[in-house]
TrEMBL record:
The keyword Translocase does not apply. The keyword Membrane does not apply. Keywords: Signal. Residues 220-347 form the Metalloenzyme domain. It comes from Maribacter ulvicola. Residues 1-21 form the signal peptide. This is Metalloenzyme superfamily protein. One of its GO terms (molecular function) is metal ion binding. InterPro entries: Alkaline_phosphatase_core_sf, Metalloenzyme. Coiled coil: none annotated.
Length: 361
């Protein structure tokens, strides 16, 4: 009897090991967004006009931190992971100074429509024309994955903005979403318990958007415990600091977010489940203005703000040609969801996601 039990346990362990090994062979995707970050900031670094404007409160500090001898040096100082790792090992699109363009296809040019376009693969101006907490009728790539046999219960989303349960439609999709000031739930480790305890003890800068450090660490702890195959992480501080006219905090937040993404990348490259089979796709929900004039105000975005339709995309992962910064070419934000689907070999309805995936050479 004991021999039989030992044999059964050995077979179960072997089967479990084979399942884990097979899952590890399948590609994983981390889809990451930075709210309202302009292509200019990514590709040219600190904006000298904004540095010298009333939006900056400590020019000397920002100059020391972000101003080098050239724009290329400036962008490395602002986003070192992007320019020391992604530019060397992956692909970057959206430097309009070099003819590389990424555009939104929705005409609203603010957050909910932008995130819907990123996640569902199509604009929906007729139904999504506000940031109100209405459940999204469109099916996101997260939902497609979560309802597939391969990725069922292997999808998760973490966001700083509290509207994301509605954008992802967590009730219909079944995708677990931790957003705003939501606590981690389920069987928690000590770090998650601590994060639950302190996230509202930290300064509440905005009631609808928590600080990104909490979103990041909630996501990372979940990832370490559960190893989801498709993860969505949405950092939100940058847009809100810009709306507040706080260029200092916007820049520091962008630097911090670059470090968060580097932290996730370093983790997956040292985790047997994720190493060498995980793609990072990074983008933004909209652009924003360039200056201080009303129709191009840096603090704003929307259909009345010049340049708010201009975005960018960064891609890093296995089987990605290390082509770095693209010159010339046109991409659109609605191509991101079908690209995720292609990487994961998800079956999608082309009527719902009509755009072509990005060609990942």
């Amino acid at each position: 009897m004991k021999l039989l039990l030992r044999t059964l346990l050995l077979l179960l362990l072997l089967a479990s090991t084979q399942v884990i090994a097979q899952e590890a062979k399948n590609s994983n995707v981390f889809l990451i967004t930075l709210d309202g970050v302009r292509w200019q900031d990514v590709f040219t670094g600190v904006d000298m006009n904004l540095l010298n404007s009333d939006y900056t409160h400590n020019k000397d500090e920002l100059t020391k931190k972000f101003v080098g001898k050239s724009k290329n040096e400036n962008r490395k100082m602002l986003m070192p992971f992007f320019w020391n790792t992604i530019a060397e090992e992956g692909q970057l699109y959206g430097n309009r100074n070099k003819g590389s363009k990424v555009n939104l296809t929705n005409t609203m040019l603010f957050s909910y429509p932008g995130y819907n376009e990123i996640l569902s693969g199509k604009a929906d101006d007729a139904n999504i024309d506000s940031n109100d907490k209405n459940y999204n009728e469109n099916v996101t790539v997260l939902e497609v994955a979560n309802k597939s046999e391969t990725f069922k219960d292997r999808v998760a989303a973490f966001a700083s903005w509290d509207v994301f349960p509605f954008i992802i439609n967590d009730k219909r999709s079944g995708v677990p979403v931790n957003a705003g000031y939501m606590d981690a739930v389920g069987v928690l480790n000590e770090k998650e318990k601590f994060l639950n305890e302190i996230q509202r003890q930290a300064p509440i800068v905005w009631e609808s958007v928590r600080l990104d450090v909490f979103t990041h660490h909630f996501a990372k702890e979940y990832i370490k415990k559960n190893h989801p195959k498709l993860v969505y992480v949405s950092y939100g501080e940058t847009d809100d600091f810009a709306h507040d006219g706080q260029f200092d905090f916007y820049m520091k937040s962008l630097l911090n977010t670059d470090a968060f993404i580097a932290d996730l990348w370093n983790y997956v490259q040292n985790d047997d489940f994720y190493k060498d089979n995980t793609y990072f796709i990074i983008t933004t929900d909209h652009g924003r203005g360039e200056g201080v004039q009303e129709d191009s105000k840096w603090t704003g975005h929307g259909s009345n703000v010049k340049g708010a339709e201009h975005t960018w995309i960064a891609i890093l992962g296995p089987n990605i040609e290390a082509s770095g910064e693209a010159s010339e070419g046109q991409l659109f934000t609605d191509q991101i969801a079908p690209t995720v689907a292609k990487i994961l070999n998800l079956k999608i309805d082309s009527r719902n996601m009509p755009a072509k995936p990005i060609s990942l050479k």
